[in-house]
Amino acid sequence: MLSELLQGADTGGFLIIQDSTNCSGQHLLTSFISAVLNRDEFVHVLGFEISEEELRDGLKGSPTQRLHFHNGFTDPLGWTNHPAFTVHQFNLEELTHIVKQTSQLKPATLIINSLSWILRHVSPSAVCKTLQQLKKGGAVRTIIGLLHADMHQKGTVGSVCHLASSVITVAPGMKADEAVAKITKRSKSGKVMQDEEIFNIKEDLTVIVQSKPSQTGSKQPDPEEQEMDPTANLTFNLRLSDTEREAKEKLALPFMFSKEKKTALLHSSPGSGRILYEPDANDDYDQEDPDDDLDV
Amino acid sequence: MAAPVNSVVKVLPEGSAVSITSFQRKTRGRLISIPGTRPSVQNGQLLVSTGVTSLDFLLGGGLAVGTVLLVEEDRYDSYSRMILKYFLAEGVVCRHELFVAAAQDNPDDILQELPAPILDDVAIHKPAEQPRLSCEPQNSLDAMKIAWRYQNLPKVQSALASSSRFGHYYDVSKTMEPEIRQAAKCHRFYLPEHPTQTSPIHSPMLESYSLLLKSLQEVIQREGFGVAGPMLKSRNILRIGLHSLGSALWGDDLSYHDNPKYRHALTTFLYGLRALLRSSLSVAVVTVPSHLIQDRALMGSITRLCDNAIALESFKGSERETNPLYKDYHGLLHVRQVPHLNCLASQLPDHKDLAFKLKRKQFSIERLHLPPDLSETVSRVSRGELAGRATVASACGSSTSGNKHLDF
How many CB atoms lie within 10 A of CB B379? Predict the structure, then answer.
């Protein structure tokens, strides 16, 4: 499922890479950027965590002419007179403006590196609102954001992830170069798919999905229990042959209520007595419903 | 209607004033008849259907007009959204008016996803199949011969259903045709379309909520849903669906602050909503993402402010998904609160363990019970061991450890 997400099939998607101090999601994010660049799409990076040089250095081998870096790294809060991009510019109008400036033709992919930086300085409800508007507006095709889950309260992480169409949670793997990705993907119809995959990232930023991690929780059936067939060595016959079954089915059990028995009880046999009654004029027949007064 | 139906009747012109005698036939004809409603069998409240037959049964026949149903969303908001859509679809089919408010998705999107009604569904509600008489030829070995006393007992139904039909059936695999949908009058409230100013600091109410409440009040007054207002035309019901209240998109900070600034915003709103509904012919379904709200006490007071409250707990992503006990279901349904309308005690659902599942075409709520254990080893082991211990005394005393699974 990770490779599907890298190919980026769905428009209007919002993907969150959620990491913690145990395992950084920065590498995976760079792989996502490279995958988008290789598809000849425009990429806008809101960079707060790594500098432009570092990012371009990491993206060697990918066509970077469509990459636009909005520098929030050097001066994120606008302390100097000429800030390139500040945290407070994170709203719909400004973002649409800077995205439209460079790529009028095709909707671009917006990379937010990272959401945690923004969430520290802007109120979560404003961030959620902007993200939702970006998702709905047409300027941006896909939003990919990095979120350091251990930096925020559980509710904040939950609120932001509630908006996301896909969440990839990165956790350390068994080996040094491996990591485990827990993927939750919500389709537009409301169906939720979940998967867990081990991946590693090569030098050229391609992601190799290795396998699904072995289910440690699932219990292996005990082989001894499986082999033993309790009906193997019986001292009596447990199975019926066809003739035996026929004979068994012929037998009427005492508690069965067969058709013959029923008819015998309902219709008396010829020769026995029967009551015939015809009402005459003297019979007092009550026309009224005796239960008329009941409110039923 | 929180006030009993009779109070509504007073507003209506006296149609039966022609009759002079004090004798009155005991009929239900004098109650107001609005399509898609019926009086409750328990307390005479006017009920509307939620669209989900089993949920109606659970809530004591349906939703009383003038009350609020709170649905605590499941983690991914797929099933709670389904309940909301059922509720709105039922309103469309019954020609009620709708009011849909949302902050996340455009209300039009929600309306487009409404499930298609199955209108010619006479054969749907067939009684449970009668078990065949044992004298009929039985081909399969599995057919059990059973004593005649037990033959005609009804099958145990785990699906919740009442005997009489109320509400319609829907096919969730299809969406409702646009012609049917557009026939219903619908009021929309999409928060991003309403400009909000920053509210003054002292106000306990959020701007978004007060806008919503004002818009709701306006609709109720303008369209004549108020009980006290002048009698305009034939009465109708207003169905109000409010999606994901309390989420960050409504500007609420309940979900990400331990000590929210607008702690009382949602509760204040719910008070206002309740006051509005009590005096009008309207009924509301509110969904709240309760898994995001950290403060349990606050969630409790939100629940108290609604009349009915149910919570959906989806198995998706929890360890319960793989639990064999739950393999037939998609999630659990908890009834948090049942309404107390004009009475001290209320009818409680007879069964507390409820689960829901989404079949291919239908969402249904069922009683959760253990499936029969058909496997060879699972629960018989202990009995087998007991039998093994009692070998000396048992008639089949020659048993070795090899056949400990035979218990007889």
Answer: 9
